[in-house]
Amino acid sequence: MTMRHGLSRFNIVSLSLGLAFLYLPIAILIIYSFNASRLVSVWGGWSLRWYAALFNDSPLVEAAWLSLRIAFVSASIATVLGTLAAIALVRSGYFRGRTGFAALIYAPIVMPEVITGLALLLLFVAIDLGRGFWTVTIAHTTVTMCFAALIVQSRLVSFDRSVEEAAVDLGCPPIRTFFVITLPLIWPAIAAAWILAFTLSLDDFVLASFAGSGVTTLPIRIYSDVRLGVKPEINAICTLMILFVAVALVAFSWLTRRREA
């Protein structure tokens, strides 16, 4: 019995329903960000009025700018620490405490964010550290570092070390070998880890609620506004964030293909 090549009608319908479930709400949000009506559930024609009103909504703009700064800093730190952790797990072989070290690295993946946020809150209170920008950054770094380490580790496991060995045999020092040979070859994985860490930090709500006191990130601001009713400006800011992430992904894909070519 041979399998038929191509997609069957059932597979096409299933795929269409799955894509519609994932992306139809996003498409509706983007369309209604151009709605001229103040009521988000009533279509009043096409307009850019809410994008103009968005830049006059200083609390929402400041929350978005704060979230971008926290996401950039935490993603950068998490990517560096995650890369170092992945190198230690893959290249160092067996060492005492390796199992515990790996467990500590990957624990935030399976740990509920409520527990992680509460633990960090108790830590910050115990050491009398004022909660603000840096405490939220530390909380986001703690969680996103494990995802960065997992992505980089998966690339290092399949890495062909003969290239490094050839460079060392030709007299290249180990540190220079890493920066000249290893780092450019694993750079796509590092970039992917940074993008994932950035997205997770930008989207986080629970950790920011526990770790930040008086720090209002974009998810917290949107949640506070939505409780009183959805404002059209929220659709506009969400559309701009979606556009920002989409442009970043396209640019990353283009740079990766150009590098491979």
TrEMBL record:
Gene3D superfamilies in alphabetical order: MetI-like
Report TM segments: 12-34, 64-89, 101-127, 133-152, 178-199, 236-255
> Could you tell me which residue ranges the ABC transmembrane type-1 domain spans?
64-253
- Keywords in UniProt for this one? Cell membrane, Membrane, Transmembrane, Transmembrane helix, Transport
Q: Which InterPro entries match?
A: Bact_Polyamine_Transport, MetI-like, MetI-like_sf
**Mode of membrane association:** Multi-pass membrane protein
Q: Where in the cell is it found?
A: Cell membrane
Q: Where is the major localization of this protein? A: membrane
Any GO BP annotation: transmembrane transport
Q: Which GO terms describe its cellular component?
A: plasma membrane
- Indicate the family of this protein: Belongs to the binding-protein-dependent transport system permease family. CysTW subfamily.
The name this protein goes by in its record: Inner membrane ABC transporter permease protein YdcV
Organism from which the protein derives: Variibacter gotjawalensis
Q: What is the lineage of its organism?
A: Bacteria, Pseudomonadati, Pseudomonadota, Alphaproteobacteria, Hyphomicrobiales
The record's gene field reads ydcV
